[in-house]
Amino acid sequence: MPRITILAVGKLKDPLMGELQEKYLNRLSHYVNVEVKCVQEGLQLLKALSDSDHIIVLDSKGETMTSVGLAQELQNLANRSVKHVVFVIGGAYGLDPSVRKKANRVISLSALTFPHELARVILLEQLYRAHTILRGEKYHH
User: Fold this and answer.
1) Of 77, 80, 56, which Cα lies nearest the Cα of 134?
2) Taking the chain (141 residues) in consecutive chunks of 10 residues, what is each chunk's mean pLDDT?
3) How much is the pTM?
4) Backbone dihedral angles phi then psi of residue 10, each to the nearest 5 degrees
């Protein structure tokens, strides 16, 4: 499985979101190496991305995907020997178009709009769910 980085604009301010983030990072550690990096918008964000990264931007206008679809996407990336997947979550005002342009794929977590802190936790939960789906574990159903 590729290494996963979640590149997020801004730090978590809500302690509850921090606890949930740690909960899912701990659960994910049994399946895959996941790291969360907090950066500033714009140039700092672009500097954190490498040309060899497979970049998936989260955007409310992106393609919707099911949990099973996300699991299949991760498996397809692993099958293609992709080494590093970076999920990018913008701040309260979204992402600079230059970041979106660099993405290999743009997805939406939902037709609903979430605060960026909650989107980070939802993404972590969905990554955990995807790995349990791939292993045939009972978490999904």
Assistant:
1) 77
2) 92 94 97 94 85 93 94 97 95 84 94 90 97 90 67
3) 0.94
4) 85, 155
Whichever domain contains 49, its CATH number is 3.40.1280.10
Domain assignment of residue 68, given as a range: 3-134
What distance in Å separates the CA atoms of residue 56 and residue 126, rounded to the nearest whole number? Answer: 14
Nearest residue to 129 (alpha-carbon basis) of 24, 55, 19: 24
- Rounded distance between C-alpha atoms, residue 58 and residue 118, angstroms: 12
Q: How many domains does the chain have?
A: 1
Instruction: Give the whole-angstrom CA distance, residue 103 versus residue 90.
Output: 13
Bridge partner list, 91? 94
Give the model's pLDDT for residue 116: 87
pLDDT at residue 141, rounded to an integer: 67
